[in-house]
């Protein structure tokens, strides 16, 4: 069993006890990132309590060799998409995808997720073309957030 699997076994019940859901867990180069979510978002107090509980449990069980940094947070507005479930939850959302070198077609794709399953995701570009991407061909992907509202006026132009 890998260190990440041992950590997952410890973290999952703690996240459930906090009435949050585990969005992602990654142990990479001495950094353990635990990303959680909740309907309507997770508040800072819940995240702080969870971080303390995870820290205590990891200290007690010591599943990771060597030093590491624990980071507990939410996926944010522009969510990373790494697992098939992430893409499925992003149906209808605008995403940016970068494929791995050697994957067929353009490496950078931006559009709306129109389909997702355990092996692939389909993205519709602004011009209406669709591209089906195997999860194995994706280097990284994230949802994008477009800020609403009017652009600020240039002060120099409005002053006379």
Give the topology:
Blueprint lengths: L2 H15 L3 E8 L2 E7 L6 H18 L7 E5 L10 H6 L4 E6 L8 E9 L3 E5 L5 E5 L3 E6 L11 H4 L2
Parallel strand pairs: 2-3
Antiparallel strand pairs: 1-2, 4-5, 4-8, 5-6, 6-7
Helix pairs in contact: 1-2
Work out the count of structural domains.
2
Total beta-strand segments = 8
Radius of gyration: 20 Å
**SS strand fraction:** 25-35%
Shape: globular
What is the top-level CATH class of the largest domain?
Alpha Beta
Please give the largest β-sheet: 5 strands, antiparallel
Mean pLDDT: 91
Helix content: 25-40%
User: How many helices does DSSP assign?
Assistant: 4
Query: How are the strands of the biggest sheet laid out side by side?
Result: 7-6-5-4-8
Order of helices and strands: HEEHEHEEEEEH
CATH topology of the largest domain: GMP Synthetase, Chain A, domain 3
Unreliable spans: none
CATH superfamily of the largest domain: K homology (KH) domain
Account of the protein in words:
By secondary structure, this protein is an alpha+beta fold. It folds into two domains: 3-73, 2-Layer Sandwich (GMP Synthetase, Chain A, domain 3), CATH 3.30.300.20; 84-143, SH3 type barrels (Roll), CATH 2.30.30.100. 27% of the residues lie in helices and 32% in strands. The strands form two sheets. Strands 7-6-5-4-8 form a five-stranded antiparallel beta sheet. A three-stranded mixed beta sheet has the order 1-2-3, with helices on one face. β5 and β6 (120-124) form a beta hairpin. The termini are far apart.
């Amino acid at each position: 069993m890998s260190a990440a699997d041992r950590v997952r076994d410890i973290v999952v019940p703690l996240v459930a006890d906090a009435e949050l859901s585990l969005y992602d867990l990654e142990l990479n180069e001495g950094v353990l990132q635990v990303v959680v979510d909740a309907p309507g978002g997770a508040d800072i107090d819940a995240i702080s309590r969870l971080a303390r509980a995870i820290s205590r449990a990891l200290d007690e069980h010591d599943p990771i060799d060597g030093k590491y940094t624990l980071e507990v947070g939410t996926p944010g507005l522009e969510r990373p998409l790494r697992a098939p479930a992430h893409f499925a939850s992003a149906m209808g959302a605008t995403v940016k995808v970068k494929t791995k070198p050697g994957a067929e077609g353009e490496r950078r794709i931006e559009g709306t997720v129109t389909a997702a399953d355990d092996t692939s995701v389909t993205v519709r570009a602004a011009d209406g073309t669709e591209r089906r991407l195997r999860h194995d061909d994706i280097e990284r992907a994230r949802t994008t957030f477009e800020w609403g509202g009017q652009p600020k006026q240039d002060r120099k132009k409005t002053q006379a």
